[in-house]
Amino acid sequence: MKGFKDFIMRGNLIELAVAFIMAGAFAKVVEAFITIVMDLLGKLGGTPDFSSYKPGGVHVGAFLTVLVSFLVLAFVVYFAMVKPYEAAKARFAKPADAEDTELSLLAEIRDELRAGRRL
Asked: How many angstroms separate the CA atoms of 25 and 7, rounded?
């Protein structure tokens, strides 16, 4: 029983559970936004649901509805999550130039010592 408790209380599992809960809540927000966008598209095109659209008798309307929903979802996820994450990551990242300079200086010292020259 102790092993199971240790497994459950590991940080990764707790973080994953929190991520799933937040993703479920965020999905509801995105669904509401998609509904708004589909209604706006419906005002422009006449109907917010393209499922009745059948050019030449081919039922492509359901596909178009899902495609528009996917594109709106991708747009929201990119601009609400990916872009801010990348900006925060870049803002708090260590500058790589300092490491490269230090590493190259140490390599130079090593090479001089191997060559038998005194500094």
From this structure: 26
pTM: 0.54
pLDDT tens sequence for the chain (119 residues): 777 777 777 767 778 888 899 989 988 988 888 888 878 877 877 766 777 778 888 888 888 888 888 888 888 889 888 899 999 988 887 766 656 678 888 888 898 899 886 55
State in words which class domain 2-93 has.
Answer: mainly alpha
Residue spans per domain, the chain: 2-93
